[in-house]
Amino acid sequence: MSYDKINNAMRRALELALLGPAHGVNPQVGTVILNAEGEIIAEGWHKGAGTPHAEVDALSKLSEVPRGATAVVTLEPCNHTGRTGPCAQALIAAGIGTVIYAADDPGDASAGGAATLRAAGIEVVSGVMREQAEEQARVWLTANRRKRPFVTLKWATSIDGRAAAEDRTSKWISGPESRADAHRRRSEADAIMVGTGTVIADDPELTARKPDGSLYEHQPLRVVVGERELEPTYRVFNSDAQTIQLRTHSLHGILEALWQEGIKHVFVEGGPTLASHFARLGLVDEFIIYQAPMLLGGSRLAIGDVGVSNIADAKHIEFAETYMLGNDIFIRARANKKAGN
Ligand code: AOF
Ligand code: ZN
Q: Domain range holding 128?
């Protein structure tokens, strides 16, 4: 089959993957099935934990699989019986001739699907459009490699890096497009985290809201970190979403506990004390930064001491995306280290 047909099929599978939920314990996975001529005869994607995997969803659309069919999958088919049965076995039973996938499954129990398929005489090709697939599934892949939630650190500041004016007022620094973008990103996370200082200073709701003010269907868990006692009248304790306060001092411990609860992606929203701790410990996987066209000057920084006193110790990051968002600048940056370190 031509590279063009294979790449187009994988591109479609990556698109299909995005139809599934970004939040939750399971990955976004897409599958297309091609006949021997390379035409798409079925499409499938994963709709969340407990529902059929993408491969099985695609197979279910066919009353019979023609000879010489190829399954094109964004993730290595699983080899384990979890909430659903192993996809490697389903592909073998369906009589699929070739399996092409993009990213290897990092799971301890679920990996090994490629070997199982090969042992059954199926031709297996891995790594097709791997870079795109790894980028798209970076949250799930990184979390599973590190065995802790993926950490996004988000802030919105003036172009000179201030998160508030000297009197602590901060409404509104970034524009409506940036705020809508931030809410959408919240809606794709499993948890939103802030320090007690931010609750006291700003009384934020920490829900994921659409531009019209209505709540997204999925509301991440609100996690407040810190020792200080908080009155139950703060808005973070309203009934729009669940909230927990964690008093432990160790961020590693907190991430470990959240991982055990099935939290795969934590969106850290400040304030500067919490942001600095995460950065100092090297626990940030991705930065989401909105910079507004204004100068505020003064002392209200988005992030403080990150343990750098000499330029040689600077914590380097890598810009993955930068563009104008309304009148603001949007930056997505990744920590400049490879997963697994
Ligand atoms: C998915 N969807 O389309 C594929 C997955 O316990 P389960 O049955 O929910 O299985 C989840 C694991 O299966 C997941 O961690 C990943 O390793 C593998 N593949 N998972 O949710 C899919 N193909
Ligand atoms: Zn599976």
A: 3-137
